[in-house]
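Section 5.1 Outputs to date
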Amino acid sequence: MLLLALPLAIAVWAFGGYAARRERNNADQRLASDLSALADSYKRAMAKARIQATTLASSRPVQRAFLNGQARAARRIQRRYRNVLLLPGPKGGVIPVDAALQVAAVEVRRRTVGRVIVVVPFDPAEAGRLAREAGLAEGLRVAFRRGGRLVLASGTTGFHPQATLLRAASVRVNDSMYRAIAVPIVEGQRRTDLVVLERSSKIAAAANSVRWRVVSVGLGLVGALLTMLYALSPAIARSRVVRQQRDQAERVLAHVGDGVFLVGPDGVIRLWNAAAEAITGLRAAAVSNRPAQEAIPGWPAIAALVPVASLPGDGNSTPRAETVPFETTDGEIWLSVVGVTQEDGTVYAFRDVTHERRLEDLRSQFVATISHELRTPLAALHGAAVTLREHGGDLSAETQDDLLAMISVQSKRLADLVEEILIAGQLDAGSLSVVKESFDPELLVRETVAAVQMRMGTERRIDVSIPPVLPEAIGDPDRTRQVLLNLLDNAVKYSPSGDRIEVALAVVDQHVRFAVRDEGLGIPLGEHERIFDKFYRLDPDQRRGIGGSGLGLYISRELLRSMDGRIWAESEPGEGTIFTFELPVAKRAPTPVGV
């Protein structure tokens, strides 16, 4: 017992010293916090002085006094305000050096005829006023540091050593030791610091008080612990072997990658390992010794689906694991769970298969989408080819041209679909080559709009809005053209014939902004982010006859990200859509004449 008591007593004494040091550190932190409040109070005083100087400089009496050279009127106005100087002309005059100044020029007809100077002095009165306004605790003192002197509310004095005080330090002031910390309020040759001081003796007394309180409580606890250990030593010895065996089992379970938990015969959770915590987000402390149906969300439904074997490792009796959904605070995940019965209850093991499940869903969605998109062009190509082969000699030249045009259009559609699939795969693999160079956004927009306009014919028109001065953008011009073409194709597909489509360029916060506006079907508010997901389509069943692979907006977003750009949508159902994307500017645009 003595061998145990000695290190415990040493630890208690060391912890008391740590508590005392922590109390001293807390005192320094409180000083820093009080200095921050004091600095805020000083900033408010300077702001008031600036407002006062500006207000006086713009007042008619002051302007008339300076404009007409009425020195007596200026002095009369000056006497009405505390710490205000009215000086004629743009410079000159006697200005206080032991003060902070807020200067406002008095301008009449675009000519400076005088200055209004509001003085915030570094004197004892100002130090006392700042301390009162900041509401500092009792015993704290406020000072202005000017060189090697401190200007306190009680007067001016020296201090030693001449430290910077930008961090809390001990200084001697009038034969008394203080902890002090400062912040600069005026830089340069007239450097002035704002200082907060607290007596070192007060801090030391508080630290010693904390030390002895901690030591007293600690020694009392050590005594009580030794007494209890002496009484319980036989029981402790008997349980040591059991505890070692349990600790070994828990260490093994803690390093198992699968989640493992034990549900007793009474339905109460007896064990919950670290992997189970990491996978489900449920802490062992929150679920242990609680009924499973209360601690695990949806447990009755899960227990009904999960197979339970009677013997572990028996290939004949062990069923395959069941994949079940599980709700967490971050959303739904999928778990592959299996159970085995034993004397203490049922042991369940599970692993997270959410990623595999989502990959399977994406594969199924990809196959369904691509199959649907391939069916129409392949059917058209097949029909046109068979017709030309079997009846080409009997068809008129016009019909043959129509069939060849159909083959050309559908072949282009298939090529575009394959290109989208390839680009999406390269983006996922990180192997797509994207350059970053300067290009003319106006030229790119006009060329792209002209190409789309040529395909649409004269049924509808695309309006272009470009500012008179536009900087170059940084990015890949080919990939940017691909994004713009995709947005224009969407605007054409999702807006009725005859509705207006507009492409606009602008410069916003050092970015070139491209916007494509249509007056079409619009997008529901909850879908503004989902439309950029892979394979997502607003009309998956093509009830409106609008096809698509669901890859265009996903590819556009990823291409813009690779060029340090971004894209977003603004829309209301039935009121059209605005797709906007931005790229960094290559250089600042010149300011137009007259702006």
